[in-house]
Amino acid sequence: MLNSRIFLCALASAALGACGDPIITWGEPATLERAIGSGDRLALSGDGVARLVPDSSPAAPAAAGQCRASVRMARDTTGEWYAVWWSALPDSTAEIVVARSADGATWEPAVRVDTVDAGRSGCRRPAPAIDAWGGHVHVVYAMAAREGPGIFASHSMDRGVLFHSPVAIVYGERIGAADIAARGNIVAIAFEDPNSAQDQIGLAYSNTMAHMFQHRQTVSLSGGGARSPRVALGEGRIAVAWMRAAGGADPVGLARVGTLRD
Known about the structure:
single chain; mainly beta; Neuraminidase; 4-stranded antiparallel β-sheet; about 0% helix
């Protein structure tokens, strides 16, 4: 990881919608076929329908200090596998690390991505998320960094050898789950908004391979109760899904599909 941290548009404002013009035309929310499970990923079919895909990752690599429940994996378009997890330290802080595998069976030593955690939560923290496209690896995670808690993203352009300085997506005390999707130059992050008076799902969008996240907005419905975000990218489309519980009812999965503006 490079030494300095990068704070871009998120540093200027904790509120969503403060950066960039809208570039997505959203459709109406649709109910998913089932509730979102912890291992589910979101996918977009060729005709623009959002659906849940059960986890089909290979066996996770094992490592000293690994928070086992935090391991998440993604397969690159090159066929390689990448895994991200929290690695707990003796003082109950933790580091974000990523490992690469050419075949999903033999894993290379993990690379440190972010090492400035100041929250002494051990393994009791939201799991990170990971995606990869063409040798570019992208991770997102919630962390109590030294300068303040928030949601951060980092990426590697050389198949996980070196990760760029983290970008702050949003700062806020109530950090929670986040998900990430990459497709070519486009990277999208869906996250539980830590600053919303009601539980809402925010979206950060980059068309510069995550060097900058120029656009942010709230995606979930008014009324709150949204959690467990998922995001997927397709050809000219984006989808965001979340779980919603209201009025004591059983949680339901909802998804919105949007068309990306050129």
